[in-house]
């Protein structure tokens, strides 16, 4: 379930946005939990990081959306904020509070649904997912977000993580089949790289937490496409 707050003081837009959200639930088969606030002060007063997405009107009578967003960011760095506004100059300021996007009034369903879909995709990508690894002496459960890259080592695999490296038996092919849908991409025959930890490409290498991992010539184009697509989905 995706938890969404609508912060809007105009009744017309409250009804329109909640209507669009209900339509989105039906067409995309996505379960949404919707809460409405009539002012920025109301949402900040009750805020406990309980939402995944906030649809925030910028111009409101008492506490405006930008001020409310600044307060929310002090408490929650993860919530996705989408501003609703009729003035583009306000929307540009939204990047100061790491807003994902903005929707211009009057709001069309198509534009709204596309931006909402992008926000939902971002949330799903960063949701924690786990795999189990058979290691010497037993098994461990690993958060996929903590894996920087997987390295082939003969008939074994090395899972490089922030605070440890785990050795387990397996093939790179089986690891790729398991992890490809979670944002991992082959750099070459030896490396399967978590795109979430790629800081950039330099000298034909993926820079992962300061470490350079060689991208082979046959894999370069495909790797760059996958990395560009992944970064685009997180905007």
Number of helices: 7
Sheet with the most strands?
5 strands, parallel
The residue fraction in helices comes out at 25-40%
What is the end-to-end distance?
21 Å
Residues in β-strands, percent: 25-35%
Task: Categorize the overall geometry.
Answer: elongated
Structural account:
- This protein has 235 residues and is of the alpha/beta class.
- It folds into 2 domains: 125 residues, Rossmann fold; 105 residues, Beta Barrel (OB fold (Dihydrolipoamide Acetyltransferase, E2P)).
- 36% of the residues lie in helices and 33% in strands.
- The protein contains 7 helices and 15 strands.
- Strands 2-1-3-4-5 form a 5-stranded parallel β-sheet, with helices on both faces. Strands 10-9-8-12-11 form a 5-stranded antiparallel β-sheet, sandwiched between helices.
- A hairpin with a 4-residue loop joins strand 11 and strand 12.
- It starts with a strand and ends with a helix.
- The model has no long low-confidence stretch (mean pLDDT 90).
């Amino acid at each position: 379930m995706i938890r969404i707050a609508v912060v809007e003081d105009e009744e017309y837009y409250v009804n329109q946005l909640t209507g669009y959200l209900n339509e989105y639930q039906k067409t995309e088969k996505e379960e949404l939990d919707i809460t409405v606030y009539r002012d920025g002060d109301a949402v900040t007063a009750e805020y406990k990081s309980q939402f995944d997405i906030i649809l925030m009107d910028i111009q409101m009578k008492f506490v405006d959306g930008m001020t409310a967003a600044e307060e929310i960011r002090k408490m929650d760095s993860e919530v996705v904020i989408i501003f609703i506004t009729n003035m583009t100059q306000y929307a540009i300021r939204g990047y100061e509070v790491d807003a994902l996007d903005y929707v211009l009034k009057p709001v069309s369903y198509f534009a709204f649904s596309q931006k909402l879909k992008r926000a939902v995709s971002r949330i799903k990508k960063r949701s924690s997912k786990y795999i189990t690894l058979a290691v010497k002496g037993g098994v461990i459960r690993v958060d996929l977000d903590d894996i920087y890259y997987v390295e082939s080592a003969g008939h074994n695999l090395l899972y490089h993580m922030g605070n440890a490296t785990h050795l387990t038996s397996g093939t790179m092919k089986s690891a790729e089949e398991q992890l490809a849908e979670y944002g991992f991409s082959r750099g070459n025959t030896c490396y399967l790289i978590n795109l979430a930890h790629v800081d950039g490409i330099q000298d034909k290498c993926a820079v992962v937490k300061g470490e350079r991992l060689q991208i082979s010539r046959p894999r370069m184009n495909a790797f760059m496409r996958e990395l560009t697509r992944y970064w685009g989905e997180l905007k």
